[in-house]
Design brief:
With about 150 residues, the chain is of the alpha+beta class. It is about 25% helix and about 25% strand. It contains three helices and seven strands, in the order αββαββαβββ. The protein has helices spanning about 1-5, 35-45, 75-95, and strands spanning about 10-15, 20-25, 55-60, 65-70, 105-110, 130, 135-140. The strands form three sheets. Strands 5-6-7 form a three-stranded mixed β-sheet, with no helix packed on it. A two-stranded antiparallel ribbon has the order 1-2. A two-stranded antiparallel ribbon has the order 3-4. InterPro entries: RT_dom.
């Protein structure tokens, strides 16, 4: 049954010039009952990767989040993020997957916005939106958080 679910799939759709067909080679159909289970099976190994101390990877729906706990030390947070992202990127490559950097966000949760300081970096030379929880503003990462 799984074999028939994953092979010989075709997407039919209407255009102004008539019906078109496209071979589907990856992904699960939107609203698929089996899709979330396949995601859970595949990503279970990613969620179990040994991460640096005080770094946790969690999954929700078809997203992952890297949670890093540090006390007012942006440099330590950057170091831990780089270490975690190297491991995640390596896992993704081994499984033929890639991160959607254009959809990636860094969220900094602060007790006091006055103590936020600066975060220098970008993810694989891609600017990442930084959400500053306490300040209610958006900024861009500058520099490089390369991994």
């Amino acid at each position: 049954m799984m074999d028939s679910y994953l092979k010989d799939r075709c997407l039919s759709y209407e255009t102004m010039s008539g019906e078109r067909n496209m071979t589907v080679t990856s992904g699960a159909a939107q609203g698929s009952i089996l899709g979330p289970d396949l995601w859970n099976i595949l990503y279970d190994n990613l969620l179990r990767i040994q991460m640096p101390e005080e770094v946790t990877v969690v999954g929700y729906a078809d997203d992952i989040a890297v949670l890093i706990s540090v006390r007012r030390d942006v440099d330590a947070a950057q170091l831990k993020l780089n270490q975690a992202m190297r491991k995640i990127e390596s896992w993704m490559q081994r499984h033929g997957l890639s991160l959607a950097l254009n959809k990636t966000e860094i969220v900094i949760l602060l007790e006091d916005a006055g103590e936020r300081g600066n975060v220098d970096g970008c993810l694989n030379k891609t600017e990442i939106v930084i959400l500053l929880e306490d300040a209610g503003e958006r900024g861009n990462v500058d520099g490089c958080l390369t991994f």
